[in-house]
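Exercise 7. Given the encoded structure of a 227-residue chain, write a plausible sequence.
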């Protein structure tokens, strides 16, 4: 089975790739819209409900390996074909979701928060810049989240539960040491100033090396992963 066969496997999982994210996004939007209608919107009403779709894309990157890798290998799919097909499906999904959010953000801004000053998709700073810049930012962000989840699942498939435990402990240790060092050298203010000097799309470009690293590591891990 080639890459096209792997894409067909993923396309058959309409719940994971289509229905669940649609339900999550639409239900969160409707709930927050109802809340905005029940209050007096003299000021713009902002909600973080859209973050649910970002979290789901990260989880999707984890679940896709957990659910489809053993089946695909059992169907005589090579690990290389599985990786390429799954990575391509992740890129397609990131493009579609990113484009959808960008269009909804544009419509929300155009209609002044759906006529009720309700902001679910469009936010200051995050959606500054041209339509193309926002589109690029969303695609990069969703691609990053998917491949981080993909990397986590590939690591778990390769090293199992004990490996994941050691990874979590190492992450917590490195994070704690980093926080201590940043506090010791009083670097927090410089970091915040640097972030404030960047636009949202400029910050997204810094995720590209992480996407590349996650992609390469995922491929290397899956090559030696057990079923």
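Solution.
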């Amino acid at each position: 089975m080639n890459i096209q066969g792997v894409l067909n496997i993923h396309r058959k999982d309409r719940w994971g790739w289509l229905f669940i994210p649609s339900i999550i996004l639409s239900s969160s939007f409707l709930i927050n819209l109802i809340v905005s209608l029940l209050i007096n919107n003299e000021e713009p009403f902002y909600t973080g409900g859209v973050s649910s779709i970002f979290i789901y894309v990260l989880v999707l990157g984890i679940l896709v390996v957990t659910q489809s890798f053993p089946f695909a290998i059992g169907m005589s799919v090579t690990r290389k074909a599985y990786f390429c097909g799954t990575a391509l499906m992740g890129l397609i999904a990131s493009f579609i979701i990113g484009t959808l959010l960008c269009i909804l953000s544009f419509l929300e801004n155009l209609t002044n928060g759906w006529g009720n000053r309700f902001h679910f998709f469009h936010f200051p700073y995050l959606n500054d810049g041209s339509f193309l810049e926002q589109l690029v930012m969303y695609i990069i962000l969703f691609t990053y989240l998917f491949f981080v989840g993909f990397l986590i699942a590939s690591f778990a498939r390769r090293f199992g539960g004990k490996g994941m435990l050691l990874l979590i402990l190492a992450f917590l240790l490195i994070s704690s040491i980093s926080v201590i060092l940043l506090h010791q050298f009083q670097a927090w203010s410089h970091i915040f100033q640097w972030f404030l000097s960047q636009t949202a799309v400029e910050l997204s470009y810094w995720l590209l090396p992480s996407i590349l690293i996650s992609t390469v590591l995922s491929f290397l891990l899956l090559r030696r992963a057990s079923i």
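Remark. The mean pLDDT is 91. Students should compare their own answers with the one above.
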